[in-house]
TrEMBL record:
NAD(+) binds at residues 115-119, 139-140, 152, 161. This is 3-dehydroquinate synthase. Residues 77-189 form the 3-dehydroquinate synthase N-terminal domain. GO terms for cellular component: cytoplasm. Its EC number is 4.2.3.4. Residues 191-340 form the 3-dehydroquinate synthase C-terminal domain. It is found in: Cytoplasm. It comes from Aestuariivirga litoralis. Signal peptide: none annotated. Catalyzes the conversion of 3-deoxy-D-arabino-heptulosonate 7-phosphate (DAHP) to dehydroquinate (DHQ). The keyword Cytoplasm applies. GO terms for biological process: amino acid biosynthetic process; aromatic amino acid family biosynthetic process; chorismate biosynthetic process.
Length: 378
């Protein structure tokens, strides 16, 4: 057992993908020992850390020290925080900085931040010199339970969310729950939406556990956080192992996202609506739409909404500040969704809590009528 294995409250979740398999290391205080995980992957003692200004201010020095303790020199590339950084412009800037830092094909990049940094740095790694390997050190709840796992990387386009990207798996994921202590409460809640998603899409027992444990997770109880993160990572790892490139079952991880991404796009990827908040509203909409289509028992969407509201998440589009475009525009945006086939919309709908399914060829008029009614309410 390595020193790291012996660390208190440390768990490992494997992601089984043949020669691209990797481990997710979950624990408290792992950042200070990150060099132990990173060093064996390096061909020479040099790396680039991609991060954002907020993460750099709070945690970069700890990571740099942890790498230096293993003799690793690092160059930090600090990007602006926020969803707007997932852009062509910032991708180009990042790639040039990685080249300027002398990152070679066999070097490794470290993505140190939330989902924005993971998606951007992961995509830069996928295309730099036709592919450089990278390691994820996620710093938000959202990135610890979702975006650091599974290899989806990319940026947004004026046409929609994540429309430019690549599948590029990390070599390892290092998840330190202590990093969540500096995360703003709004961001913590946004990440919680993706935790709840795993219960809602395929594990009613986990959702029931969350209904009781949410206050502990939100106030920082280590055991509750580690359990929630481990369960989430296990659920995602299993789905990704089955369907890495989303030809089938992986689409379930998109529960709430067709609605949510349209809202994110319509609000200009701004602070008006965080990704997890869009997912929260979108999951409630997915359950309400399922009820309306008589797929799901009445009252299910209310139960989902009650739970998400209890952690401070928005559950209805009317809670988004400012004007929204009309429903027809939202449907127009949804046509760019990557799950669409032959111009027909695909949604993740549900028969009950924990029983999501992929609904292809959803009637656009049904969606439009639903949105028109839903947006009028409250
Ligand atoms: N690739 C995937 O599978 C996948 C999955 C889910 C979401 N995503 C993407 O992830 C993005 C959202 O990620 P996010 O919610 O992590 O947002 P984010 O990366 O923007 O981080 C949220 C905010 O918290 C700050 N921050 C991060 N860690 C911090 C810390 N420890 N202490 C203090 N501040 C900290 C950041 O600077 C930022 O301001 C979206 O672009 C979404 O599309 C991708
Ligand atoms: O990993 C996946 O697969 C997901 O769908 C996870 C989502 O939470 C995440 O937001 C993802 O980036 C959405 O992917 P997209 O293909 O709909 O852009
Ligand atoms: Zn998501």
């Amino acid at each position: 057992m390595s020193d790291l294995n012996a660390a208190e409250r440390r768990e490992t979740v494997p992601v089984s993908l043949g020669d691209r398999s990797y481990d997710i290391h979950i624990g408290e205080g792992l950042l200070a020992r990150a060099g132990e995980v990173v060093a064996p992957f390096l061909k020479r003692p040099l790396t680039a850390i991609v991060t954002d200004q907020n993460v750099a201010a709070a945690h970069l020095a700890t990571l740099e020290r942890a790498l230096a303790a293993k003799g690793i020199r690092s160059t930090a590339i600090v990007m602006p925080p926020g969803e707007k950084t997932k852009s062509y412009q910032h991708l180009a800037e990042l790639c040039d900085k990685l080249l300027a830092a002398g990152i070679e094909r066999r070097d490794r990049i470290i993505a140190f931040g939330g989902g924005v940094i993971g998606d951007l740095a992961g995509f830069a790694a996928a295309i730099l010199r036709r592919g450089v390997d990278f390691i994820q050190i996620p710093t938000t709840l959202l990135s610890q339970v979702d975006s650091s796992v599974g290899g989806k990387t990319g940026i947004n386009s004026p046409y929609g969310k994540n429309l430019i990207g690549a599948f590029h798996q990390p070599l390892a994921v290092i998840t330190d729950i202590a990093l969540l202590d500096t995360l703003p409460k709004r961001e913590l809640a946004a990440g919680y939406a993706e935790v709840a998603k795993y219960g809602l899409l395929g594990d009613a027992d986990f959702f029931e556990w969350l209904e009781g444990a949410a206050p502990a997770i939100m106030r920082g109880d280590s055991q509750a956080r580690i359990h929630a993160i481990r369960k989430s990572c296990e659920a995602k790892a299993q789905i990704v192992a089955e369907d890495e490139h989303e030809t089938g079952v992986r689409a379930l991880l998109n529960l709430g996202h067709t609605f949510g991404h349209a809202l994110e796009s319509a609000t200009g990827y701004s602070q008006r609506l965080l990704h997890g908040e869009g997912v929260s509203i979108g999951m409630v909409q997915a359950f309400r739409f399922s009820e309306r289509q008589k797929l799901c028992p009445p009252g299910t969407a209310d139960r989902v909404a009650r739970h998400l509201k209890s952690v401070g998440l928005p559950i209805h589009a009317s809670q988004i500040p400012g004007e929204l475009p009309p429903p027809a525009t939202l449907v127009e945006i949804m046509r760019q969704d990557k799950k669409a086939q032959g111009g027909k919309l695909t949604f993740i709908l549900a028969r009950d809590i924990g029983e999501a399914f992929i609904a292809r060829d959803v009637n656009e008029h049904d969606v439009l009528n639903f949105l028109t009614e839903d947006l009028r309410q409250r």
